[in-house]
């Protein structure tokens, strides 16, 4: 299973260009999903050459420091053999801005963020069912 995961509001609080506080349970669930066999693609608006510097590298390093192995960054390397589309192919996309995504508002956060207590178990169930 391939999962595209947004960064701000999904893995950390919205504090762009800085890194916000960790979204509760995001890293825990990403690790569990990887252990289940899921491939994680970071799918974010952060960029290498933005006005605020290399904010994409900040996000990639954050995930690497947390023990998350990325299958791709804003691209799915497996799709190059069958399409030239710039959209990263995935089975699932997790984004705080996605319609219907369960959200929470932790104290001190700037905006609502993904509720991994709901999203994580549902994704793990899908991952396990595809084994």
Automatic annotation (TrEMBL):
Gene3D superfamilies: HAD superfamily/HAD-like
Protein name, UniProt field: Capsule biosynthesis phosphatase
Native source species: Desulfofustis glycolicus DSM 9705
């Amino acid at each position: 299973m391939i999962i595209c995961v947004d960064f701000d509001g999904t893995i950390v609080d919205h504090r762009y260009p800085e890194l916000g506080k960790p979204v509760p349970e995001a890293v825990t669930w990403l690790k569990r999903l990887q252990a289940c066999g899921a491939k994680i693609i970071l799918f974010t608006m952060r960029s290498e050459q933005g006005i605020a510097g290399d904010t994409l590298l900040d996000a990639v390093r954050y995930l690497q420091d947390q023990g998350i192995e990325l299958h791709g960054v804003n691209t799915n390397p497996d799709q190059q053999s069958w399409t030239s589309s710039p959209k990263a192919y995935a089975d699932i996309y997790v984004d705080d801005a996605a319609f219907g995504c369960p959200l929470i508002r932790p104290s001190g956060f700037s905006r609502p963020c993904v509720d991994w207590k709901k999203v994580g178990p549902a994704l793990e169930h899908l991952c396990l069912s595809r084994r």
